[in-house]
Amino acid sequence: MPSLLAPRQPAIGVTIAPLPPITPTLPVAERETVLRMHGVSCWYGSFRAVKDVSIDIGAREVTALIGPSGCGKTTLLRTLNRMNDLIPSYRTDGHIQFGGQDLYGPGVDPVAVRRRIGMVFQKPNPFPKSIYDNVAFGPRINGFKGNLDELVEQSLRRAALWNEVKDKLKQHGMALSGGQQQRLCIARTIAVEPEVILMDEPCSALDPRSTLQIEELMAELKRDYTIVIVTHNMQQAARASDRTVFLTMGEDRAGYVVEVDDTVKIFTNPRERLTEDYISGRFG
Question: Which of 29, 71, 93, 276 qualifies as a cystine partner to 24, CB 3.0-4.6 A?
Fold first, then answer.
């Protein structure tokens, strides 16, 4: 298992060993756990945006974070790969374990964390480069020594984009449609061979057809990757995820977890009244 203290070297055609199983906290949770949050609180200065979150993220599943606007879903998502470190006033309390290491432990390299836990943002954001160079960018800066053409093709195939762009790899990435741009960003993310992919409302700017393509792509990608997605679209969460985490805000405006369960249970037989009220549209 590569250390988070040093850069991870991607290698085309090499299968990364799965994370060792972590003993589940609940007897019913027989899944392999990739990320474990315990007592996680997220602060912007003196404001606590998320409080006391303790959840497990299962390997090779899609986990959806749902809840009303402002409840801290994106903050929590960005905490999983230390993207919030870029905000000067931000800090995290608690522990997030990944591959036997605390992501916020002493000496952990945030850049190494982001190589292994990639992120796809709400708005497609291709680099101002060709399709080929968008995908090749990460491997190049990480010192990739293998066959770059093969890696680019493999990444575009995994992102279900290769057949649409294979004859125009030198074309500017911004010339693609919105849905194609988002799949290009997914290809760019997986080109450095992460183990986890975070998606922050990846379909909010897309039309229904492109949204369906991204959802179908997630179903394919979860065979090899763990995916965590933030979405406001209840239908999308119900269709595309295996597990659902429902958050809401307390009187102090801090987000907290109300319920975590298999998606089918959350949407058909939730334990908490707050969950039922939210997914049925009574509030939020």
Answer: 29
The sign of the dihedral angle between the CA atoms of 85, 86, 87, 89 is positive
Under the banding of pLDDT at 50, 70 and 90, the label for residue 15 is very low
Question: Do 124 and 199 touch, CB atoms closer than 8 A?
Answer: no
pLDDT in tens, 109-145: 999 999 999 999 999 999 999 999 999 999 999 999 9
Please list, residue by residue across 144-156, b when 16 or more beta carbons sit within 10 angstroms of its beta carbon and e when fewer do.
beeebeebbbbbb
Q: Of 35, 6, 31, which Cα lies nearest the Cα of 96? A: 35
CA pair distance 57, 184, nearest whole angstrom? 25
Residue pair 164/208 in contact (Cβ under 8 Å)? The answer is no
Question: pTM of the full predicted structure?
Answer: 0.88
Q: Which helix (H) or strand (E) holds 75?
A: helix 73-79
Instruction: Mention every residue, 6+ apart, whose C-beta is less than 8 A from residue 25.
Output: 56
Q: Find the helix packing angle between 178-190 and 148-158, rounded to 10°.
A: 130
| Position 239 pLDDT exceeds 90 | yes
Distance CA 144, CA 137 (A): 10
Are the beta carbons of 4 and 103 closer than 8 angstroms? yes
What domains can you pick out in the chain, each with its CATH number?
33-120+195-279 (3.40.50.300)
Three-class secondary structure of residue 124 per DSSP: coil
